[in-house]
Amino acid sequence: MSDLTEVGDRDGWRCWLCDEPVDPDASVNADRGPSVDSGPVPKGKKGGAGVERLAHRACNTRKGKIAPVVPWSPDLFVVDPAPIVATVDRLGRKGGQEVVARCPSRSDADEAAAWLVDRLSRFAPDLAVTTHIEPGGGQFLLLLRAG
Ligand SMILES: [Zn+2]
Fold first, then answer.
1. Where are the domains of the chain?
2. Mean pLDDT over residues 100-129, rounded?
3. From ligand 1's centre to the CA of 137, what distance in Å?
4. How far is the CA of 14 from the centre of ligand 1 (A)?
5. Mean pLDDT of all residues belonging to the chain
6. Distance (Å) from CA 62 to ligand 1 centroid
7. What φ, ψ does residue 25 adopt, rounded to 5°?
8. How far is the CA of 19 from the centre of ligand 1 (A)?
9. Quick one: which of 27, 59, 120, 135 could link to 17 by a disulfide (CB 3.0–4.6 Å)?
10. Rounded to the nearest whole angstrom, what is the distance from the C-alpha of residue 16 to the centroid of ligand 1?
11. pLDDT on residue 26
12. What is the mean pLDDT of residues 48-75?
């Protein structure tokens, strides 16, 4: 069990689930207060402990009950966005590529791709991903590729 301050400093006092800042001085009993989440379990390590990550207490508590949700930015124009946590999990285990969203225009797709890569650099720093945009059906498909 790592020290909260140590985990917070390493994660830059940002919640790994919702990507919002965490106040290091907030009470650990407050919803928006800091807590240490067990983080993702590395592949091949069934039942093992993951790398500890900083999360808001409320985000961490929610995660214990249902699958964690990493929201897409509401500023993006994406249609049928894929659940980020499940997609990252699959790509981490199996590799390959998946369509993660459809966008009405090329610039929307470029924006969504840039956002996603930036978001994943904090959410799943160990997973190397690239994005690809393919026109299809009058829209633009955003693909996420592992490796
Ligand atoms: Zn949070």
1. 4-65, 84-146
2. 95
3. 36
4. 8
5. 88
6. 10
7. -95, -5
8. 6
9. 59
10. 7
11. 94
12. 79
Are residues 90 and 43 in contact, defined by beta-carbon separation less than 8 angstroms? no
Per-position DSSP letters for 105-133, written without gaps between them? SHHHHHHHHHHHHHHHHHH-TTS-EEEEE
Ligand 1 centroid, distance to 74 Cα (angstroms):
16
**Any bridge partners for residue 97, and if so which?**
145
Q: Are 34 and 24 in contact (CB under 8 A)?
A: yes
Question: How crowded is residue 61: how many other Cβ atoms within 10 Å of its Cβ?
Answer: 13
Q: Return the structure tokens found at 60.
A: 């961490």
**Stated pTM of the model:** 0.77
Distance in Å, CA 131 to ligand 1 centroid: 25
